[in-house]
Amino acid sequence: MSYFNIATRVLLLTGLFPILVQCGGESSSPQTPDDLIGQVDTGQCAHSPYDGPEADVANKSFAYQDSGYFGKMANTDHLDALLQASGVQAYRYIRSQGVDVYYIKEKSQSQCRYFTFAKKAPSDYRQKWRDKAGPNDGSNGATLLGLFLTYFSRSSTGDVRLVDPTILLRHDTQKWTILHEFTHYLFADSRSQEKFMKFNEEIATDMQTSNNDILLAKANFLEERSPEKALLLLMQWSRFFKLSHKLHSRNALEEFTIESMLNERYRAGRITLINPTLDTRNGIRYMQSNAAKVYPRYQKLVESIRDFRIQYFEHDWEDVQKQSKQVENQIQEQLDFMDQKLAQAAEALATESLSSLALSVDFSLDSPVWPVQHYDPQFDELQDRLYGIK
User: Fold this and answer.
1) What is the DSSP string of 234-285?
2) Which end of the chain is more exposed for a tag (fewer CB within 10 A), N or C?
3) Which tens digit of pLDDT belongs to each residue from 66-91?
4) What are 206-248's pLDDT values in tens digits?
5) Residue 8 in 3-state DSSP?
6) Which domain holds residue 357?
7) CA-CA-CA-CA torsion for 366, 8, 134, 29, nearest 10 degrees?
8) Is 12 part of a structural domain of the chain?
9) Does residue 334 lie within any of the structural domains?
């Protein structure tokens, strides 16, 4: 049983995205701000930010490795070094990695002031926070808790670097949020190691080109009805999916990945000094919200390829049938993986005793998922148009 089954309709493709170019042969692109939304407890902090040890750097290789999610690489030893550290020590460690960390003071009924030990955000960062939160922040049951900001600079020789990586934290959120935002930095840092790394805008442009190639390949197949033309069409579908998956893996699927990674580490008893009930419930709700961005798009593509196969070569061209099913399975594997991780997190939450911490907030997993409002709407609109989703 899948978590999302959403009807779709066809739209046309529009628009191109600009790439920012600087002098000196360097081009740059702002990373879509990576956020965490959720709820805050209106009571006291679950822990003092001063409780707990320093970062644990023993017996760690600090090498880039596969995160186990969507082909994403990161130096996750940096995250694991902070799982049991105090909030203050996590803050100091993250700053030692070259990341600025500030807190944002918001109007709140919460008695918790967890991150007020940090530096208060300068006015320009407070404005960026306001821009991302928007005027209706909190109206749908969730509020902006944290934000990771940076941009990538790429030289003419293909070297990529992160510029001004910065974490912003709501003053009354707690340790889980700084772990979440720091993991965004780790993924961004890993991407910056890739020579000639493509910016999001460039991938979006490639997706539009790929979509046009699909339309042309489909027209050519319908004119000739040959296995060769069918294989060319399947190749274009596969390329389109790979481009889309790369873009998703930097946005909604990165949010999904981070919350699932933290959830797994918590279930294994590796994360301490958090607000377990609130943080894990926020986490699975955020996983659901971000999967809801991606799931119908991938499902639509699987259905399009399958319907085309059934209509035109279900009983002919064995090689074409085989290739078609391979492309379908390639996409379906990602849907199944999302379902698996959501089911694991939900099962753990359902079986966990939640009576150990009295919360002054109440939300149920049966309630609607939060709308994820904080993404760059350009890329969301592009994905929906290219997938034929309204």
Assistant:
1) HHHHHHHHHHHHHHHHTTHHHHHHHHHHHHHHHHTT---SS-HHHHHHHHHH
2) N
3) 999 999 999 999 999 999 999 999 99
4) 999 999 999 999 999 999 999 999 999 999 999 999 999 999 9
5) coil
6) 20-381
7) 120
8) no
9) yes
Task: Tell me the whole-structure pTM to 2 decimals.
Answer: 0.85
Judged by DSSP in three states, 65 sits in strand
What's the structural domain count of the chain? 1
- Return the closest-CA partner of residue 20 out of 10, 6, 30, 35: 30
Using DSSP, state whether 97 is helix, strand or coil.
Answer: coil
Residue with the larger pLDDT of the pair 94 and 111: 94
Strands (E), 56-117: 65-66, 73-74, 100-104
- What pLDDT shows up at residue 210? 94
- Measuring CA to CA, how many Å separate 383 from each of 15, 187, 203, 216, 235? 12, 22, 11, 19, 19
**Amino acid found at 231:** L
CA distance 297 to 299: 5
The whole-angstrom separation of Cα 165 and Cα 98 is 7
The string of DSSP letters for 205-241 reads HHHHHHHHHHHHHHHHHHHH--HHHHHHHHHHHHHHH
Residue 236 token pair = 């274009």
Residue 9 in any domain: the answer is: no
pLDDT value of position 121: 97
**Which of helix, strand or coil describes residue 316?**
coil
Asked if residue 387 is part of any domain, the answer here is: no
- 245-303 pLDDT, tens digit each: 999 999 999 999 999 999 999 999 999 999 988 899 889 889 988 998 899 999 999 99
Please state, in angstroms and rounded to a whole number, the distance separating the CA atoms of residues 198 and 200. Answer: 7
Q: Smallest Cα–Cα separation from 99: which of 154, 144, 149? A: 149
The token pair that represents 61 in the structure block: 């290789």
Query: Where on the phi/psi map is residue 25: left (φ > 0), alpha (ψ -120 to 50), or beta?
Result: left
Give Rg (Cα) of the chain.
22
CB atoms within 10 A of CB 51: 16
The length of the chain is 390
